Amino acid sequence: MEALRIVIQVIFILICIALTALVLMQEGKSAGLGAISGAAETYWGKNKGRSMEGKLVKITKYLAIGFMVIAVLLNLNVF
């Protein structure tokens, strides 16, 4: 059981590092001056889910869920 706990801790650390890197790679959510003139409603603004930024957001969500699940499992002392 101790070996399984070490493996899960290593996975947890890797998720932490990946989550930090992904958050730093993302753009800010502020629209800036483009929101005043309506430039935020462009093709790229509407289809953000299909762009690289949208993929980063989705991956970040999944890693955050994994982070929370593993954190709870490690604190329950199941392993």
Explain what this protein looks like in three dimensions.
- There is one protein chain.
- The protein has 79 residues and is mainly alpha-helical.
- It is 71% helix and 0% strand.
- It is built from four helices and no strands.
Q: Order of SSEs, N→C? A: HHHH
Main β-sheet: number of strands, strand sense, barrel status?
A: none
Shape: elongated
Number of strands: 0
What do the pLDDT scores average to?
Answer: 83
Helical coverage, percent range:
over 70%
Number of helical segments with 4 or more residues: 4
Spans of at least 5 consecutive residues with low confidence: none
Strand content: under 5%
Give a quick summary of the entry.
This protein has four helices and no strands.
Provide keyphrases for this structure:
elongated; mainly alpha; 4 helices; 71% helix; single chain; 79 residues
Topology:
Blueprint: H1 2-25, H2 34-37, H3 43-46, H4 52-75
Helix pairs in contact: 1-4
